[in-house]
Amino acid sequence: MARLTRAQQQERTRAAVLVAARQEFAEFGFAEAKVDRIAERAELTRGAVYSNFTGKRALYLAVLVDAVERARDAAEPPAGPPASAGRALGSFARVWLERLPFLGDTPGSGHLQVRSLSGVLGSESTRTALAELVRFEALLLALALGPGPAGAPLSPGAVRRAGLALTLLHGAAAVAENAPGTGDPFDLARAAEHLADTALGDDPEPPHLPYAAPARPAATPWTPPDGLHDEITGRPVDLADDGVVVVLGTGRLSAAEDAVRSAAPDDAVTVVVVTGDPAETGRLARLRIVDLTACLRRTFPPDRLPRLRVVLDDTGTVPTALGHPPTDHTETALRIHDHLITAHSTGRGAGHTAARHPTRTPDPNGAP
């Protein structure tokens, strides 16, 4: 029998740890789970566990990520588009509510099923990231629910309505986590359906946008990292394609909405999500975004998924290629045309100013 390579052995060890950790968290929950017992279940040493995961929190998030990635990969698209935004929101809610635990489930398994983060996020950075992710999830759902093609402009109040629906669903999950069997999923789905017609004013423009420095014109050849893919569609992504690329740390994801609203209707907009803490904050971002996209794939046919492309850059290859170290507060944006960076912006409002920059390629000789 051929000997396993080091990479193969590490992958086998990681898989064994995840199986053991899932069993431990299902039985004891996050708070009472022990890394020593996880190592014992996996027939490994404590050191072998820590060589793959930085701690119990990172391991718990990895277990949840593994579950949502499996669900996303198994998701089947619907036969056709929903008849209306209300029907779409009701269908999305029914898919999302399948996670609610039943009365006979153990507390630990129920917490895993609802992707519970209760008592898990201990640092300020992860709590900030979660708040930003909630806003980003609302943007993705609003783009899918929008009238007409998924690339249509956001209607007034669209993101707020989507956020309200997600608040309803997460609230139902929080109640069911502690009192399984509470709440009728069909009633909740009907309530979500009616939220599509709720009259809400649009979000005001962030006050700093009018004062954001304009994007800097450029004519720089751009060879982005390869091997990237869009989390929404699963397709490969070439960041040298014409359009706007916005690189956002997990603490600045709400700025994606500014770029989307500022871009021209035919602009391809890509959000690259980065972090300075891939073990925990990065896994949190992956968990939430993959979980949402799994539900979107089961609700909308491929041609109605949001046109916004989302790249999870766990290792920070994109900001590194631009000369910026990946952090939770990274905010930089590019306008790309003919494989050239034609505009580059950093700091607050970067996505907004890059999206507003003309698409024309600057003449390197300075001609108008």
UniProtKB/TrEMBL annotation:
<dbReference type="InterPro" id="IPR050109">
    <property type="entry name" value="HTH-type_TetR-like_transc_reg"/>
</dbReference>
<feature type="region of interest" description="Disordered">
    <location>
        <begin position="345"/>
        <end position="368"/>
    </location>
</feature>
<keyword id="KW-0805">Transcription regulation</keyword>
<keyword id="KW-0804">Transcription</keyword>
<dbReference type="GO" id="GO:0000976">
    <property type="term" value="F:transcription cis-regulatory region binding"/>
</dbReference>
<feature type="DNA-binding region" description="H-T-H motif">
    <location>
        <begin position="34"/>
        <end position="53"/>
    </location>
</feature>
<dbReference type="GO" id="GO:0003700">
    <property type="term" value="F:DNA-binding transcription factor activity"/>
</dbReference>
<dbReference type="InterPro" id="IPR009057">
    <property type="entry name" value="Homeodomain-like_sf"/>
</dbReference>
<keyword id="KW-0238">DNA-binding</keyword>
<dbReference type="Pfam" id="PF00440">
    <property type="entry name" value="TetR_N"/>
</dbReference>
<dbReference type="InterPro" id="IPR001647">
    <property type="entry name" value="HTH_TetR"/>
</dbReference>
<protein>
    <submittedName>
        <fullName>TetR family transcriptional regulator</fullName>
    </submittedName>
</protein>
<feature type="domain" description="HTH tetR-type">
    <location>
        <begin position="11"/>
        <end position="71"/>
    </location>
</feature>
